[in-house]
């Protein structure tokens, strides 16, 4: 059975592991980051649209945020984020963007500037969404819902997770996680297990943040979604 290392934070890591089991793989869960809530409050002000950049922005948001934004049109970065927002009672009108650039484009196409866009996001992020909205003449207001903190597993924890057998595939979901993984790849315990593994990245930007030794294979999903990422795996099964 092919072994797949999952590096994303919980609870997403366990959700991915369950999908991998259904696909016939053996998942190995080793989160390299964790998300923690920031307990924000929604200040008063006009809200024409809501942008949600991650399921974590829903998972860690207080109920007061949902109550204040109920009924407002919500633009989610992807389907999983959209599903989480719907489950929280929000009015999701678009969840097909895939990344921050396209999310800004879709909001701009739906509203005449200046529109007031409330953005539910993480503290650790690129500034692409707000920058693109500002450039288009809109007025984004950021609400940082959660923070992303690094996790540094010990050699014993890595050994307990990976065992003595090689890992066939590695899933990398964020640039932050790619940087953490790159630092861990310098350890002998990981070099042994991951030598010959294929690294699957959610985007080219994430792949660019991953530093692997020459000769190791890196592949990038056609679209920045987990479905596209996991779709790369079956072709390598056997």
TrEMBL record:
Its EC number is 4.2.1.75. One of its GO terms (biological process) is uroporphyrinogen III biosynthetic process. Residues 15-230 form the Tetrapyrrole biosynthesis uroporphyrinogen III synthase domain. GO terms for molecular function: uroporphyrinogen-III synthase activity. It catalyses: hydroxymethylbilane = uroporphyrinogen III + H2O. Keywords: Lyase, Porphyrin biosynthesis. Pathway: Porphyrin-containing compound metabolism; protoporphyrin-IX biosynthesis; coproporphyrinogen-III from 5-aminolevulinate: step 3/4. Catalyzes cyclization of the linear tetrapyrrole, hydroxymethylbilane, to the macrocyclic uroporphyrinogen III. Belongs to the uroporphyrinogen-III synthase family. This is Uroporphyrinogen-III synthase. It comes from Nitratireductor aquibiodomus.
